[in-house]
Amino acid sequence: MASMLLSRQLTCAIQQYCRLFVPGCRSVSQAAAKIDVDFDYDGPLMKTEVPGPRSRELMKQLNGIQNAESVHFFCNYNESRGNYLVDVDGNRMLDLYSQISSLPIGYSHPALVKLVQQPQNVGTFINRPALGVFPPDNFPEKLKESLLSVAPKGLSQIVTMSCGSCSNENAFKTIFMWYRNKERGHTAATKEELDTCMINQYPGCPDYSILSFMGAFHGRTMGCLATTHSKAIHKLDIPSFDWPIAPFPRLKYPLEEFVKENQQEEARCLEEVEDLIVKYRKKKKTVAGIVVEPIQSEGGDNHASDDFFRKLRDIARKHGCAFLVDEVQTGGGCTGKFWAHEHWGLDDPADVMSFSKKMMTGGYFHKEEFRPNAPYRIFNTWLGDPSKNLLIAEVINVIKREDLLSNVTHAGKALLTGLLDLQARYPHLISRARGRGTFCSFDAPDETTRNKFILKARNKGVVLGGCGDRSIRFRPTLVFRDHHAHLFLNIFSDILADFK
Ligand SMILES: Cc1ncc(COP(=O)(O)O)c(C=O)c1O
């Protein structure tokens, strides 16, 4: 009720916003405000610059007890709704970054509010179990209802974890165990192996490797960091492994104008993958698995064709390496399919697929042959959190009930079409507009301009995220509609028109 009242009070705010804050309102889009989600606000409302005085004061406080220089501003999550993030100074912003791509159905979705208020769920929210040893009675049922109901084709097994890095880290371990078991001929480990693993030596600790791609981001734990190559700041000062790193295609845009060049670029990268597998086998650092993001996200929203990924999958199979698809950022529906790799049309599924972010819990799916052969080999205290399984079960219900995958495709088209239009009008400021679903991005001419875009947009009521060295990435919620896209495009069109 309160949210409906809120919606009514805020009716026509987009038009008011245009009049008040967007002089001349140089529209690229004629779409009027449309209120179809009663928990959403109608438009941005800015009271101070961001960060405002209250945020700045809190930043000072936090910085006294930890390095808080990454904080953009402090938020009021009780007031945030739908696609709108409200900060502690009362500024309400259209959020196209959505907690680094991790908010599936908007802030304070009524279905989730209801879920946490139900008395039968209280126990799940307040008693966090050690799931590997003391799971609750509804654990298998909840997994089936939630995560397994969206399991990628061919992957029947599931392990839950608490974050993306921890999911990939354990997926790597699963792959190494699988590979060793295969090499050993599925027999028990020898005494020598058991002894040497205790002192980090061969043969107990084999010199296996995971092949990754330049520009990839798979997390910040030590194993994951060895496969992360997006920015030096993540890696500096941390010891790492000598694991193979292949080039990731650098596609030229518009794609239809550079078909041949892009095919050659992808072929070059695939050839390098095979060469590295052979080279590392000779070096006795056998490649047990290949890890890849369907779209390199933190590294700059780098895309490759479906054909590239099908061929990469073939190479993994040919050389006996596991194929791990990291869907931590691309998963959960934002590309218009539940998992981005479903766009590829693989005839043989991935072996392992990790997820987190929009899925509310981390974890990974895998084929049955990747099951560890003993308990505690893949283990930690919590192994995820059943309260998150309750939430993701409801999120999946909402996605299905509201057909949000179709919405993503539709709204993504509105967003990308608008970006391409802006690119045609401001080619010196915008290039390489690209995307799948709402997972869109474009490049600014350089990092300074990109950062200015983000700051200007924020002060006009839009939260954007950057990635790579000069890209802006769009990571809205799944309840981002066409009218949100038009609202953003109008605001950004004005920023470009006045850009200095
Ligand atoms: C593709 C990908 N993998 C892994 C991670 C790491 O996830 P987390 O930050 O939850 O550890 C991220 C985080 O952004 C990611 O984008």
TrEMBL record:
Q: For this protein, what is the EC number?
A: 2.6.1.19, 2.6.1.22
A single Pfam family it belongs to is Aminotran_3
Q: Which InterPro entries match?
A: 4NH2But_aminotransferase_euk, Aminotrans_3, Aminotrans_3_PPA_site, PyrdxlP-dep_Trfase, PyrdxlP-dep_Trfase_major, PyrdxlP-dep_Trfase_small
Q: Give a GO biological-process term.
A: gamma-aminobutyric acid catabolic process
What keywords is this UniProt entry annotated with?
Answer: Acetylation, Aminotransferase, Disulfide bond, Iron, Iron-sulfur, Metal-binding, Mitochondrion, Neurotransmitter degradation, Pyridoxal phosphate, Transferase, Transit peptide
Cofactor dependence is on: pyridoxal 5'-phosphate
What is catalysed by this protein?
(S)-3-amino-2-methylpropanoate + 2-oxoglutarate = 2-methyl-3-oxopropanoate + L-glutamate; 4-aminobutanoate + 2-oxoglutarate = succinate semialdehyde + L-glutamate
Broad EC category? transferase
Entry's Gene Ontology cellular component terms: 4-aminobutyrate transaminase complex; mitochondrial matrix; mitochondrion
Question: Is the keyword Zinc assigned to this protein?
Answer: no
> Recorded GO terms, molecular function?
(S)-3-amino-2-methylpropionate transaminase activity; 4-aminobutyrate:2-oxoglutarate transaminase activity; identical protein binding; iron-sulfur cluster binding; metal ion binding; pyridoxal phosphate binding
Quote the subcellular location field of this record.
Mitochondrion matrix
Q: Which family does it belong to?
A: Belongs to the class-III pyridoxal-phosphate-dependent aminotransferase family.
Free-text function comment from the UniProt entry = Catalyzes the conversion of gamma-aminobutyrate and L-beta-aminoisobutyrate to succinate semialdehyde and methylmalonate semialdehyde, respectively. Can also convert delta-aminovalerate and beta-alanine.
Q: How does it assemble?
A: Homodimer; disulfide-linked.
Q: What is this protein called?
A: 4-aminobutyrate aminotransferase, mitochondrial
